[in-house]
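Lab meeting, action items carried over

1. Structure of the two-component assembly. Owner: GW. Status: complete.
Input record:
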Amino acid sequence: MSRFAPGDHVRILDRDHRGHMRTPRYLRGRRGVVERHCGAFPNPEKRAYDRPAEPRDLYRVRLRQHDLWPAYRGALADTLEVEIYDHWLEPVDGA
Amino acid sequence: MEPDHDHAPIEAPDERADPDARTIRALKRLLIAKGYFTAADVRATIEALQSPGPHNGAEIVARAWSDPAYRDRLVADGTGAAAEMGHPIGEAGLIVVPNTPEIHNLITCTLCSCYPRSLLGQPPPWYTSKAYRARSVSEPRAVLAELGWTPPGTIEIRVHDSTADMRYLVLPMRPEGTEGWDEGRLARLVSRDSLIGAAPARAPDTLDP
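Predicted assembly:
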């Protein structure tokens, strides 16, 4: 049973991390909505170093572009969808 | 004159200018000598990596345009639906994102240049450029305009940053004026770049009769 379901509001954590990771810096601290649970995949942070990698839940998160970029030029409806691992997400109250 | 000019190893153009080329050649010779693989294995692997191409994506899209049940399966499970058409996905998963009158999708990878290579082959050079990777997420409409297409201001532009294990294929909208076309003819309207979301599918009048 995965921690998040589609429609859940989440925040992407600004964790202190050294080494390989798949959470871009431009998303740190940002809020979005879970679009889907992709499944569980070997943790890339371990796999990159050829270490045993435990499976971690991967989610697609949808964010509003106007929330992400102060100078965003485009429709209010414009969005960005990204894949983020479970340990980089925390639940937040729905907006 | 270079002493080994007449006995130069076979390599890609400009490889001599690549500072890593000598290391790679030495490593390859060593691994072949130690029996990890053969020279034929190397050549065949390069060939296999280069064999997929946009024609595979075009075939899938043409099927989806022609068969609503297939389209539903494609959007629900891109990996499974691609395999149905004889295109097993080598990466962890394929997600197909449909364009609609309300939503236009654009694919990118800010972290590196993830692309569904096992299906479509190599991405275009602009896709792997640092400029595209950086700007596609923060100013997709300006990037699309520079690539030659301006979407309507009211449509939602949805950018997909391939940050982890999934790979993406845009399902373009079926162009007007294609009623009754068979799948082979429809596939000719599906360009490589429409599968990335850089442009819509080609219009019927752009094809040679």
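2. GW to write a short summary for the group page. Key points so far: Chain B is about 40% helix and 10% strand. The two ends of chain B are 54 Å apart (CA to CA).
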